[in-house]
Each structure stands twice: as structure tokens, then as C-alpha cells.
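Sample entry (544 residues):
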Amino acid sequence: MVGKITRYCVPFSIPSSDRRRKFTKDMELAAIFCIAELHRKRGIDFILKRPAEEIDFIVQALYPFLLAPNQNKTLLFDGFGFISYSFKYDLLPSVETFINNLKRSAVNPQSYSATLMQYLDYFDSFTGVDKRTIKGLITDRDFINEFLTLFDKAVRVRKPIVDKIILSPSINEDTVRILSNEISEFRKRLQTDLNTLQKAMNLLNKLTERQLTKKQTEVLSIEKLYDKKISKTKEVLSKRAERIRSHFDKKIMDIGRELDKKIQELHKEHLRLQSRREELLETRAEYATKLKSLDKKKDSEDILALQESISEIDEKIGRLEDRVEEVAQKVDEISKKKRLEISRLSIECRNKIGEVMGKLDELEAEFKAKVKMREESVRSLQELTEIISSKINSLLDLKKKALTEFEELGIEIKTRRITVVYVPFYIICFRRKSERRYVTIPTSMVESMGGLTKVKSLIGLSDVKSLLKPFPHIEELVNEFTLLLEENPVFEAEIAEAGSKLNILKSKSLRKSIKEGLKKLCDEEWFSENELSLLYRILGKYGD
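Predicted structure, serialized as C-alpha cells:
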């Protein structure tokens, strides 16, 4: 299994974009030596008379990161687990129970509607939260981008590494496999939740559509049934109404004929009276003419006779006029009676027909009530479905968001197997008697002198530190590692033992490289010739 692990190592120093001069390995060692001297505490405590610190060892260590393939991406793990990724998994109500109850209730719209009412508040929210922490998983995008910058410079390790401390990670390949599988399982659970919610949504819409189709079929059946009923009833009632109308038409006709006959007789009498009146008026006119022609002295008897005759005629005319008026009044009375009787019979006819045709109205009202009841049932089903669908959609959106966040875990590096990437840093151990103190220098960007102020003194020198600009996220992890040395005596003892064996100051060839590197740094004017001589003397303490 170990043979299947691919290993890479990142260079410690990476030239910045504005650095034009080559930064060699001996310059790197020389810079580390200078920084070690800068960090070394000198014996300046005259009261306690504490001796100056000595550099116990300088050693390069390899901080392990692990890359693990996970679906189409690669997960990045911090080998010591200083970084962790925590997430919460929202627990759904039992969607399968909802699905099963929907299926069981779908036999008829009534039970289906009752089930929807029962589950109206079922999907209001998640039922709980399952919190998990994936130790070592790095998800911070800035950190990942920084790592990718370093990984781009990494070199495949094909031979055993013997001159550096290879730190044994607390999160090894087997742990990474387990964690990667756990992430896959959670992703699968999220996808399962999504699928189950989508299944519930699809089933809800499908079954509701089916119930609505049933309702529509019922409405069509009712329409067909009542169309037939109404048509048949209308035909029967129309015939009955026509008989009633014919009956009343005959009554109206008979009464009209009878009263018209009386009015006609009265009109005849009226004409006869009028004719008689005209005759009398003519006779009176003749008498009046004769009366005017007589001599009052000679024809007194004739005058009296004529006057009596005229008076009689006037009396007759008066009686005739009274009778004419009486006849006219009777004509009016009979005409009014005719109108009232016809109106009464027409109203009675309409009422009778209304009573008969009212059964048709009742049938139509019954039809409309049944259709309306089903339409209200349809609206209720649609509203219930819409409410539940909206709540399921909300849960779907939250699950999709969680899955999207989960899918974004990892980096765009294709790897088929677990890969270990070593990021180097230097451990400097200072010793004062039995006390040891550690300083770490993480992988850094190598800067150019640029506008930096030239160093004027070795003591308190800080400008050489400006040569190496640590990658901030790697620096944070290396600082955590330094704290681990302070807190774990057993681990510290192991590092001290390994550091003593691999101390670069014990190697003659490496001391020579440091010396050559110091000269190159001096040529770049990171320090003066005098300071170079002092650094040579300090280096000489560790051997020729």
C-alpha cells in the first residue's frame, strides 16, 4: 500500500516575480543561518548572568499535506490536523412516510385531500441537525490558492529522503481514505435527500394531477348526465307549459269574446241612441223654425203646441244623452274588466308555467351545485398541493445549497491515488544549558533588495528577514507546529534527536555552502563586508 502513494516535495524558496537574480541553495542556507543568528538571544542579563544561547541545530523538516481523489475533485488535508472543516447535516422529516401515505390515500379524492391536510405543516423545517467535523480538511480558498502556487513548483520524490526530517502526520493515508469515504457518504446522503425530496415532489404533483383529472372526469360526467336530464326534463316541461299556455289562451280568448260581444251590443245601442238623438234634434230644429215663423198674436195655440213638443223633445234628448253616457260608462267598465281579467289570467298562466318550469331551474341549480362543489374541491387540492410543494421546494433549495457547498470542496487537481505533498520549513533549535527553544522558518517567497534599507549592524539585524517572505497560511500551520513542540515533550524529544543527527551545521560540505551563500548575499548588499567577516567567524565555531 505504501508503494502506491505518490510523493511530491515543494522547494523551500520560490523567487518572487520581481527578483531577477538566481537564488541558489547555498544562498538559502546562508539566509537561514543569518536569520538563526538574528533570533539567537545573547547573554546580556548582567544580574542573572545568563549565558548566550547557542544554535543547537538547524534542520529542514517536511510538513505533510495529503491529496485524496474524491469523485471529480481532489481533497486537501493538513497532515497534522491543525485545520478542520465542520459542517452541519440537516435532518429531514420522514419523506418515505409521506410518500407511502400519499400512495395509500390516492384511491379517491376525499382521502387524498384529507392526507394533504394532515401533512400541511409536515415540511415546515428540518427535524434536527447532525454536526460533523472532518479533521485536517482544508476548504479555505485563499489557503488552497496558496497551496496550488506551491504545488505548481513541486517535484516528484522518487528516491528516499535522508537529509531532512520527514514529519509523520497524525492524519495518514488510511485516515484520509476513511475521511474521504465519509465525505463521499455525506455527499451521497445529501444527494439521496435531494432525490427523495424530488421524488416526493414529483409524486405529489403526479397524484394531485391524477385527482384533478378524476375531478374533471366527474365534472364532464355530471355535465353529460345533467345535459341529458335537463334536455329531457325541458322537453317534458315545455310540453306541459305549452298545454297550460294553450289552456289559458283559450280562457283569455273566451272571456275576450264574451266581453267583446257585450261591448259590441253596447256599441250598437250607443249608435241607435245617437241616431235617435239626431232624429230628435232634427225634429226639434224643424219645430223651432216653425215656431219662429208663427205670429205670436194670431197663432198662439200653435205656438203653445210647438213649444210643448220642443219641451218633450228636449226631455227625450236629455234622457237619451243620459243613456248614451250610461252605455259609454258600461263600455269602459267592461273594457277595464276585460283588461283585468286578461291580466289576471296571464299572470296565473305565467305562475303555472313558472311552477312547472321551476323543476327545471331546480335541476339546473342542482347541476351547478355539484359542479361548484367539485370545482371547490379542485381549488382546495391545488392550494394544498401548492403549499406543500412550496415547503418541499424550500427544503430542496437548502439541500441543493448544501450539496453545492459540498461539491465545491477540494481542488481542481486530477489524481488517481492518495498523494503526499511535502512543504519544507526550517527548524532552528537554540540551547541555553538544558533549555531548548525553537524558531521555525516556513516556505518563503524570495524577495529582491529593491528599496530596502541597507543593513548597518548585525546585532538586531532585520533586513535579511525581508529576503524571505513566508507564505502566510503555511506560516500559520508551522506556528501551530512550534506550539506542538512546546506542549508535547515526547514529540519535542523526537524532533531534537532527529535534528541533532541531520543538523546542517555539522556537515562540512553544508557549512561550505553556507559560506559561499553568505558571500553571494553580501554581493547583493544584504549586509556589509565587515558583517560578512563576522558571520564567517561565527560559522567557523561549528567546524572548519
